[in-house]
Amino acid sequence: MHLHRRDSDGRGCGAGTGKRQQFTAAKGLGAFRLVSNLPAPNLKNPIHLLAFGFGSGCAPVAPGTFGTLMAVLLYLPLSRLPLMSYLLVLAVVILSGIWLCGRAAADLKEHDHPGIVWDEFAGFFVTMIAAPSGWAWIVAGFLLFRLFDIWKPWPIRVLDRRVSGGFGIMVDDLLAGV
Fold it and tell me: Read out DSSP for 69-88?
């Protein structure tokens, strides 16, 4: 099943500048059509490019999962860093993410746009802090992070609803990563 995302001008995710997106199924899937009234990012804008995970947040379905898959790719070289260096990179990702996510959300006038996946990067990196090396642990970290990010057990759900801005976008994923 191939889904094609196009902005109202037909150029694809990020091609427009804040235009509404429409998701349509490829030929042969008949009536299946997912329409989103969310504003499209402009991936030529470096803030949007980063907040939308280098485009991974533009996936037509499950953008958080695709964002986390991108985080896995970014994690691979980071996993070779000494712990203190890894924690320093993580601090930069978190602090810059608060600003990036808040700014992108404000630009798009959408508090927690599902395509903003920088918070998934940070949350997954938190999950992997103490993980042993190896693909089995990466897969386990991916699955557990996605489970807690989607499920949002207490107190994650409460904070997700009550805290706004860039910190609000980031905090639920950071807690899901713990």
Answer: HHHHHHHHHHTTS-HHHHHH
